[in-house]
Amino acid sequence: MNGIFTVARKEAGQILRSRQLLISAVIVTLVFSATAIPAVLATGGYAALDRVGFMLLVVIGIFIGYIFSGQAFLREKTEGTIETLLCSPLPLRDIWLGKVIGVTLPAYALTLGGAAVIVAGTSALTGAPALPSAPMIIHLLVVVPAFIAVTVGMLGLVQLLLGMRENQIINMAVVFLVIFFFSASAGLMGAGFQATWTVEGVLLAVALLLLLALRGATRFLDRERIVTTIP
Question: Is the whole-model pTM more than 0.85?
Answer without folding.
Answer: yes
